[in-house]
Amino acid sequence: MKVSGNYKIFYRKRYFEQTQKDIKLAGALPASTPLIPLMGHGLPNSAGIPYRLNVVPASAQPESGAARAGQNTQLSGKLTRYEVEFHLQADALLLLPDADGARRKSLQVALMVYGSDFKPLNWEIREIHLLIKPEQWADEQSAGIPLHIEVDAPPGDAYLRTGVYDSSSSKVGTLEIPLTAIASLR
What we know:
By secondary structure, the chain is mainly beta.
């Protein structure tokens, strides 16, 4: 049997060994939820819950020694605080009115800051309980449902991965951006 053709070989260009520090950091990460496996650096984005994202450096940066924005308690050194504003597309969420006309929904929202070595540097994971009053509904449908979270990131080559998970529908939306692109716009 003779085989001929144009073939390309794909392979991993490098491997990462977990050090003791990496193992300790992994233990500090939040317990697994359905959103966490989709929050890895470099994974494809998901559009199950579409949203617009606005990420800017905070107008007031924290002083050295101030409380950190994010859940990595080991984070230290010079940091930049970023304000992350989500605008969720209302029609992507099943938001039925209650007897009082209000719309309620619980969502899990996550921010993960990664270094170029694919290691998590900081994260913020929250359970958000939406309450949209009847008089707010028209605005939220046209402008999107706003969510605001802050997170700190060290300088250098870093990436911000964002995600939203709706447990009632199992829909997910994720988006990743390089923070260096935002820093260059300042």
